[in-house]
Amino acid sequence: MSNTQPRLPRPVESERIPLRARKVSFSWEDTPLHWVPGDPFTTHTINVLHLLLPAGERWFVHVYKQVLPYIRDERLREDVIGFIGQEAMHSQAHDEVLPHLKDQGLDPTPYTAQVDWLFEKLLGDRTLPPGRPRRWWLMERVALIAAIEHYTAFLGDWVLNAGELDRRGADPTMLDLLRWHGAEEVEHRSVAFELFLHVDGSYARRVRTWATAFTALVFLWQRGTRFFMENDPTLIDGRATFKDFHRRGRRGLLPSTGAVIRSVPRYLSHSYHPSQEGSTEQAVAYLATSPAALAAEKSRESAA
Questions:
Q1: Do the Cβ atoms of 186 and 245 come closer than 8 Å?
Q2: Where are the alpha helices (DSSP H) in the chain?
Q3: Number of other CB atoms surrounding residue 105 within 10 Å
Q4: Average of pLDDT values for 256-274?
Q5: Residue 1: per-residue pLDDT
Q6: How far is it, in rounded angstroms, from Cα 282 to Cα 160?
Q7: Are 9 and 273 in contact, with CB atoms under 8 Å apart?
Q8: b/e per residue 187-204 (b: at least 16 CB within 10 A)
Q9: Residue 8 scores a pLDDT above 90
């Protein structure tokens, strides 16, 4: 018998801070359809966030409210409650972009209806007997959220450092939405994984749900980008290809293919912990200058 013990995840304690929701708001009337000038592909690839996140983050909140009774650690409970508040605000902020897209001739409803079905029906509550079957389905969804959060934190860290978007003249309001959201994803990047370890922690489940989440995200993202490109009223023959994604990644306009691939073994490592990635200091620094976050803070202070 081997005496080798698996390496346990080692959180970076200095990366943890108390979480709170910021009630932000954005005004979209001056944001053009192609908010990355002259680059509809980059615009629409990132716009897929607005299709996926409203339903997805409502689902996160729904699942986490069900798992609260299983949490035996008070600090983790506080983190989960803060996570719920932030995710609810993210869902609302991205949902408010959709009418703006529709006003510009790009109706997202056919796609968002399918996304709603995915989260509300396929991944929603099931009529299961109490006990082990019901707990199994809850733990599966907790593990799925941990895997998805690995990629939302990955994207949050990327957009905080995506200086090429600024150099290309990307719309400042859209950049603030993306970076405010990205910064909060970095802030709470450890919560979903720590919750999964606390209530279950099965490595087999972690690998299985990662495979499901990664496959679904790749499928939904490429399908969403194709939907936008094909239905953009300003494009005659709008197409979306992997080559387009790869090229934008090399230019710094989208995450690079290599960075996405390297994210896989990190999550699957026995020693992985989300606090080892990204920078809370950078996230907090952005939130201290974000126009939307500053406005939310002033509103909070006025109401106090």
A1: no
A2: 40-67, 74-95, 98-103, 109-117, 132-160, 163-167, 172-187, 191-199, 203-231, 242-251, 257-268, 280-287, 291-303
A3: 11
A4: 96
A5: 37
A6: 8
A7: yes
A8: bbbbbbbbbbbbbbeeee
A9: no
pLDDT of 172 strictly over 80:
yes
pLDDT value for 260: 96
Q: How far is the C-alpha of 253 from the C-alpha of 43, rounded, in Å? A: 10
CB 41 within 8 A of CB 240: yes
Q: What is the pLDDT of residue 301?
A: 75
**In this predicted model, what pLDDT tens digit does every residue of 203-250 receive, in sequence order?**
999 999 999 999 999 999 999 999 999 999 999 989 999 999 999 999
What is the Cα–Cα distance from 55 to 187, expressed in whole angstroms? 21
Q: Is the dihedral of CA 174, 24, 195, 209 positive or negative?
A: negative
Q: Which residues of 147-161 are buried (b: 16+ CB within 10 A; e: fewer)?
A: bbbbbbbbbbbbbbe
Burial of 256 (0-12, 13-18, 19+ CB in 10 A): middle
- pLDDT, one tens digit per residue, over 154-167 is 999 999 999 999 99
233 contacts: CB under 8 Å, gap ≥ 6:
104, 105, 106
